[in-house]
Amino acid sequence: MSFLNKTIKEGIFFLVPMLLVYLLIAKLYSLLTPLAENISRKLFNYHFLGIKPVYIIAILLILIVCFLIGLLALTSLGKIMLKSVEDNLLVILPGYKLIKSTSQSIMGLEDSANFPVVLAPIDGWMIAFVVEKLETGESVVFVPGSPNPWSGNVIIFTDDQLRPTSLKQKDAIRILRQTGMSFKSLKGDC
Fold first, then answer.
1. Predicted local distance difference test score (pLDDT) of residue 169
2. Could you report the average pLDDT of every consecutive run of 10 residues in the chain (190 residues)?
């Protein structure tokens, strides 16, 4: 029964983000379809490989919107807008910054904030992420749980108490999710 319960929960946590992305794209598609139909009527009056041009145009419009929003996100105004939304709205989501940082790291957008991976002295050495450096010479660290690295504890340590590692954030998350089973292959990085 425990296996069934855990498997269903894992399925839910796998499907929910995918469902949210699907709903976002579906909503964007429904908003852009009328424009795509107008463009299609003016430019085309046939099917391309059995596909109506309106579908291709709608997909291209979605990609253009994503590109334009990506351009906005790269500007200082976009960064200010995003920071404002993150600081005032998304801050209520537990682990948002860690999830965002890890996702960006996995997608190859590593120029974003990447939390350094350290070992913190808690009943032995525990994997932790330095989320902020204080002026007092201390560090605020997030000590994630395993196998769910999105929940854990926030603890303040002096810098000399922490042991730096060369682990990447995405590798540390993988170790935690796999309850340490992939640690052996990365142990030389600690």
1. 80
2. 73 69 85 85 66 80 86 83 74 62 56 76 90 89 82 88 88 80 56
- Residue 111 is predicted with a pLDDT of 46
What angle in degrees, to the nearest 10, is found between the helix axes of 96-106 and 76-88?
A: 140
| Tokens 């350094």, located at residue | 116
Could you tell me the two tokens for 169?
A: 């954030």
Residue 133 phi, psi dihedral angles, 5° rounding: -100, 130
- The H or E element spanning position 154 is strand 152-158
Question: What is d(CA 49, CA 109) in angstroms, rounded to the nearest whole number?
Answer: 36
- Regarding pTM above 0.70, the answer is no
For 104, other C-beta atoms within 10 Å of its C-beta total 17
* 117-189 CATH pick, 2.60.40, 1.20.120, 2.80.10, 2.30.30: 2.30.30
Domain with CATH 2.30.30 in the chain: 117-189
Instruction: Say if residues 142 and 152 touch (Cβ distance below 8 Å).
Output: yes
The residue among 101, 102, 161 whose CA lies nearest residue 126 is 161
